[in-house]
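input
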Amino acid sequence: MRDIVLLDPVVALGGARHVGLVRTVWPHARTPLAGTRGMGEQMARLAVLREGRDQRLM
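output
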């Protein structure tokens, strides 16, 4: 179990509640969907990241 806590980078893709749970284990987790307001915005942000138009992983 200790080894999984040391993972880096960790990327959390999900809503605020799920990301909050992930951050209890990995406070350094990157959250590229932060600030989105629903599934549509999340899918649009993921499409932008996939196409390489935006490299940030918050």
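quick obs: The chain has a mean pLDDT of 88.
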